[in-house]
Structure formats: structure tokens, C-alpha cells
Amino acid sequence: MVFASIVLAAIVAIALVRSSSSVQMASASRSLEGEIKEIVERYERIHETYLRKDAGSPLATQDESALRALMIESLSDDPGMEGGFFDAARARLLGFAFPTSRGPARTEAVEAVKQAAARVTRLAVARGSGVKLAVDSGPDVLLFRARALRNGNTVEGAVWIMQAVPGVRALREKFYRLSFFLLIGLSVATTALAWRFTHNLERAIQTIEGTLWTKESRPDWPVPKTRVEEIDRIGAGIDHLARSLEEHRRQQKELEDRLHRADRLAALGKLVAGVAHEVRNPLASIKLKLHLLRRNWAGTGGSEAAFSVIHEEIGRLDRMVARLLTISRAAKTDGSGLQDLAQLVESRADFWSARAAERDIRLEVEIGPDTRGAAAVDADTVVPILDNLLSNAIEAIDHAGGAIAVTLERPAVSEMALAVTDTGPGVEPSAVERLFEPFFTTREGGTGLGLFLSAEMARRLGGEIRHSPVAEGGARFELRMRC
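The structure corresponding to this sequence follows.
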């Protein structure tokens, strides 16, 4: 931009100088044309006077004084003009006058002017018309005008006048020199700018090349700024492309993981269906035998309560087996198993409190006042989830004196949060991402199906299970569901 401004300024300056000199030349030329026309008219009037006196013509008679007087009278109002006449018969200049000369009055033109005047008048005589001539003289330009003078049909001579246009040639030469040096300077500057741009461009390209090598191992490595706008745009494009490729790789890996998980789920479904089918028949037999045993022991107060609990748990196992057989289908309920969530949490906490007490573990329950009667849930779905979380919490506390807190809250009008928090060692950070994968377990002898099945059941409820570490140590698992 700077270079273009300099070039434009130089062009404008050249145009202004040329325009100024052209204006000066045009103005002087008009003055000369008007003045020589007036001189010719005056000469013709004097010529007529001479003819009436039968005295020939001023040129023929070589009347120097009359010719000079005519020239002085014509040029006295035109500063800087000088002129005279040319006698074609004798090939000599005469009648020279320079009335506005600042020095002493001269009766002879300087040698350079005389030579130019002789040349221009000879041309005018030869052509029989007017002639223009411009002569360089030092810093000035001398403008000549000549007009042929006739005596009847014969060209007997010519009149000439001249005016100097001061400083035009010097100004042009000076500006041409300036333009020459300016052109050299611009050439040097252009070469320097081109070298600098090329050098910066080469460094920027080397930076991009080095970054591309780094991006092969670290796609997130940003392309540094090079201070070359065009290259920086390319670098930004490379960064965007790298991010897009990395995002595509991530999505591809997620898709592969999902497909792998789907394959494992399919295999798990077949396994669970097979196990459930095998378990269902013995479970039915146990249920039948328990019914018969209960009928034979009827009337015994203590045994009746125990039989009720056993019967209820066998019924729950039976329903669990039925649900495992349909794990690949969406859960359906006819509404007969719906139960208030707050009451369900309290009853399951009472059921697990005896087992917790055997390990000297405190089981505390906190039910939010705004949760009672707020949600009716399918007990056959929620109870296995809560049982699994409580069982895991008890197993996680391998020392006496631990504590488990079961809380039920309502964080939003349409949401319930059931949390189980223990004081165990917590979950290793490396295992957090795999907690809900099938067959993954951190406990010796574990199947790795508890949290997986719980998470699947939570999704069938339209909710989810979340894990979060506890600052004081331990783990917190939270079941979120809509109510």
C-alpha cells in the first residue's frame, strides 16, 4: 500500500509539472500568435502608404528606422518579447527591437536568437506562410513565430517575434532527474520489500511444515502465528481441519465402542436369558415347596412372619427372572406394582439394616419432606437397583465402624434423586469410566453385572445412575429419575 501511494504521488507530480509547463507554453504561444498578426497588419498599412508614395516597400528600401519603430510600437506592451524582420532578397535580418528589455536598449539580437530567427524566417519565406519554432536555451525555452510578407505575388521577406518561457526546461530536467532517482529508489525499495516478503514467507512456510510434523503425533498442537496474514489463514484452516479429523476419530471410536458394547450386550442377553430360564424352574419348585411347608406350619406365630418374608423375596426373584428374560425389550408395567418411592426406600433400608449391623456399619436414611407421595414407581425395577447399590456399599466397607447414608431428595419439581453414599475406599480414577460396563468389576469374586443391569433398568425408567467421589473418602451413587 505504501509503495502504491508513492508511485501514485510520483505520477501525479509528473502530471502537475507537465500541466504547468504546458499551460505556460500555451499562454506564450497565444500571445505570440496575436502579436505577430497585429505586426503583419501594421506592416501592410505602412506598405500601402509606401506604395501610394511610389516608394517601394519598407523591406525593399531597407528602411531600418521605420521597421524598428513599427516593432517597438507593437512590442512595447508585451514584456519579454523581441523581434524583427528578414529581407529575403539580401538574406539579412533588420529592424530588430526589444523594447521591454530590462538592460540597456539593444539593437541587435544575441547570436543564438539571431541564428534561430534566421532559420524560422527562411522557413516562412520558403513556405510563404507562418512558421512556429521552439528552441532550448539553457533553463529556458525560446518560442518563435514567423510570418511571410508579400509584395504583390512575391514573398519579399518575413517578420519574426520571440518570447522566452523561463525555467520550463530546467524544471523539466530537474524533475526528470528527480524522477530518475525516485525510480531507482522505488526499485531498491521494491526489491527490499520483495526480499523481506519472500524471507518472511519462507520462514512462515517452514513454521507450517514444522508444525505439520508435530501434528502427526499431537493433532491438538496449534499452528503458531507467522505474522503473514495469508499463511495465518492457511494455519487456521489446518487447525480447523485437524480438530475436525480429531472429532471424527473420536466419533469413530465412540461408534466402534458402541458396536462392541452392542455385541457384548447381545451376548450378555443370550447368557442372561439362558441363566434365567435355567433358574426359573428350580425357583418355581422352591416356591411350591415353600407353600406346602407354610401350610403345614400354619398357626406358628414366629414362623409365619419368616415365611412371609421368604415368600415375598422368592416372588421378587421370580419377577426378576421374568424381567431378565425380557431385558432386550422395553420394560412394561400394568400399574399393579407401583409403590410410593419414599416408603419403598424406607422398607428396603430396614431390610438391609440387619446385614449392615452384622458388620458394625451404620445405615442412615434421610427422606426429604417434599418427596413423600411425590412419585409412584415400579417396585420390581427400583428395588433391584437400590438393593444392588446398598449391597455394593456394604461390600466396599471392609472395616468395622463405617457408615452408609441413603438420601431421597427432590432437586426439581419433576425429578427425584435417590443417593447411596458410603465411607469406603472409593473408586479408583482409572476405573470410573468403566463402572457401568458389563463384566467389569473391581471386587474379587464379582460378576461385573450389578451396576450394568442397574444402569439398564434406570434407563428403562427414563433415568440414569451417576457416580461421584466423596471428598472425605468413599463413593456416592445417585439414581435420578423423573416423577
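Residues 229-296 form the longest helix (68 residues).
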